[in-house]
Amino acid sequence: MASRLSDGIYVRDSVQISAKLLVVGPFGVGKTTLIGTVSEIEPLRTEEVMTQAGAVVDDLTGVQGKKTTTVALDFGRLTVADDLALYLFGTPGQERFSQIWRDLARGAYGALVLADSRYLDQSFEALGLVEQHQLPYVVALNLFPDTPDFPEEELREALDLDPRTPLITCDARDSDSAKQALIALIQHLYALQQEQS
User: Fold this and answer.
1) Residue 122: closest CA among 152, 102, 150, 94
2) For 109-128, what is each residue's pLDDT tens digit?
3) Does residue 117 contact residue 147 with C-beta atoms inside 8 Å?
4) Which residues lie below 8 Å from residue 116, measured CB to CB, with a gap of 6+?
């Protein structure tokens, strides 16, 4: 059993708190990548090859080379402190999977909303669902090679963000950057809890 514990399969004995968090955002924004980058266990992925039939309903703007899509969820785990483990649930990005999204939102403490500043309008549906379920959230702009550099005020206005909602940048492919985005979400959740107590 000790070797399996050291392999990271089981949760550490010291973990006293576990938190379910969602990683949401539009199709192709990097949710699967982020969870795979930070997960200490082999992530569960429900990726399927995209077909011509899906091209009729899926907007491929900005992700023309994408070959697969998440059809149910991604799942990973990250222990961020001796006593705290995060269970990360990545949601599908297409509107046709919104019922799965609603099911995954049950019991979640909050959400990391991944967005692409090149296509901010594609984030509105995910933001709407998060707000509809009254989940606190942080918006993380995933950096791509051709990501433009907009002033934060313009981005906040375009996304119609509450002034207290954190807006950060991250690179879903970089472990440290992706972990910092999740830590920003935890800090935001903690600050909200302190305000309410």
Assistant:
1) 94
2) 999 999 999 999 999 999 99
3) yes
4) 25, 26, 28, 29, 62, 122, 123, 141, 142, 144, 147
**Tokens at residue 151, please?**
């002033």
Question: Which pLDDT belongs to residue 95?
Answer: 62
Are 148 and 62 in contact by the 8 Å Cβ rule? The answer is no
Q: 165, exposed or middle or buried, with CB in 10 Å at 0-12, 13-18, 19+? A: middle
Q: Is there a contact between 94 and 57 (Cβ–Cβ < 8 Å)?
A: yes
Give the type of residue at 22: L
Q: Residues in the chain, how many? A: 197
CA distance 159 to 156: 5
Q: What is the DSSP letter of 120?
A: G
Closest CA to 182 of 9, 17, 20, 6: 20
